[in-house]
Amino acid sequence: MTHPTEPFPFSTRLARLRVRLAEADADAVVVTELNNIRYVTGFAGSAGILVVSATACQLLIDGRYEEIVREGQRLGVIAPATVIRVKKYDATLLEVLAAGGWRRVVFEGDHTTVAQYSRWVAGVPHVELTPIYDWVESGRIIKDAAELTILRKAGRLLSAVAQSLGQWVAVGRTEREVAGDIDSAIRRAGFEKPAFDTIVATGLNSAYPHARPTDRTIAKGDLVLLDFGGVLEGYCVDLTRMAGAGRVAADGQALYLAVREAQDKAIAAVHPGCLTTEVDWAARQVLEQHQLGSAFVHGTGHGLGLDVHEAPRVGPGDPSEAIRLESGMVVTIEPGAYVVGLGGVRLEDDVLVTAEGQEVLTNAPLDLLIV
User: Fold this and answer.
1) Cα 350 to Cα 239: distance, rounded to the nearest angstrom
2) Are 333 and 263 in contact (CB under 8 A)?
């Protein structure tokens, strides 16, 4: 474990939870979503439960992680929570809830199964258990200095991977082969792993937005859609670029140019105070003007952070339910157009909302890469 360039403000994140507790007239909150636990404490594991009250922060983990957590606490990369070793998570949680003497405890409703809830209710019948939603996620939407340091670095590293696409995309190679090369390059660049299953879609397959790589070989004239991402220190970045195998037909080139114009307009629309629906419309209206409105079948983007898809969603909908962008939010801008029988085009970059407008974190060339 090493110290981050910028220290994570764990005390600030805990303080926000405690403010929510006081506002909700609750005694403790149970956090079970693993990336929410990571955000609040710095602990990254495959299992764990966090219990926060006004006076205590208790991290329930099993024997696999006890020494890792203590070392992380010594280095300052994991919050100074009380470590409780468990054998069975639910049983230990019930012991903690019973010992707390609490009247009302809240838990993450989106991340708790009916079976878990039933066990908890039966185990501590004297405690009022109430679901809450987005308590941690609402803080994660604005990135702090430590997070932005990682995301900026990750954007540069992923852009460097994209600079090498011409080495792997070639006539006669299969989608699976190209995807494998990209995944290997992501790891060589310093990422922990790909952020999702890499998409390489060629020719007619590119008309399917989330096509999976197949054994189809790249043929002359194909459009090639390449969508890939990486995880650096837990944080995800995401990028999509387009290639053409030799001479691309005029209708394919027109599709590419329309999507590029849509992306330019959407990125330019990003600024504090702008609604997510307004950013989406900036891209969507361009494609409408090119008679491609029905070919744009997804939203313009999504938030990035510990999850590759998190708030805010940048898409169409009721403006009254849209999110107003704030400095510190990081979103993808990825309009696309997909025409069955022709192919599809998507261009994606990661964009930070700044006080002045926006900062594009990925800087790989956007031109159609001819191979």
Assistant:
1) 7
2) yes
Backbone angles phi, psi at 345, to 5 degrees: -135, 135
Partners of 244 in the β-ladder:
223, 370
pLDDT of amino acid 5? 61
In degrees, to the nearest 5, what angle opens at C-alpha 164 toward C-alphas 270 and 168?
Answer: 120
The alpha carbon of 178 is separated from its chain's Cα centroid by a whole number of angstroms, namely 23
Alpha-carbon span 147 to 5, nearest angstrom: 10
Q: Report the chain's terminal Cα–Cα distance, integer Å.
A: 42
Between CA 138 and CA 157 the distance in angstroms is 28
CA distance 262 to 126: 57
Q: How many CA atoms does the CB half-sphere of 49 hold within 13 Å?
A: 25
Which uninterrupted H or E stretch holds 183?
Answer: helix 175-188
Give the tens place of pLDDT for each residue, 8-62: 999 999 999 999 999 999 999 999 999 999 999 999 999 999 999 999 999 999 9
CA distances to 122, 123, 136, 353 from 100, rounded to whole Å, are 17, 14, 22, 42
Q: Judge whether 282 and 269 are in contact, CB under 8 Å.
A: yes
Does residue 310 sit in helix, strand or coil?
A: strand
Q: What are phi and psi of 37, to 5 degrees?
A: -60, -45
pLDDT in tens, 126-139: 999 999 999 999 99
- In angstroms, the CA 310 to CA 90 distance is 27
Domains along the chain with CATH numbers:
10-140 (3.40.350.10), 145-370 (3.90.230.10)
* pTM over 0.90, yes/no: yes
Beta bridge partners of 257: none
Looking only at the bridges linking them, the beta strands covering 28-31 and 104-108 are parallel
The residue assigned the tokens 């693993």 is: 34
Can you state the angle between helices 10-23 and 34-41, rounded to 10 degrees? 120
How many separate helices (H) and strands (E) can be counted in the chain?
11, 18
Contacts of residue 160, Cβ cutoff 8 Å, sequence gap at least 6 = 189, 364
Half-sphere exposure of 20 (CA within 13 A, CB side): 22
CA 185 to chain centre: 20
CA 28 to chain CA centroid, Å, is: 28
Three-state secondary structure of 229-292? EEEECCEEEEEEEEEECCCCCHHHHHHHHHHHHHHHHHHHHCCCCCEHHHHHHHHHHHHHHCCC
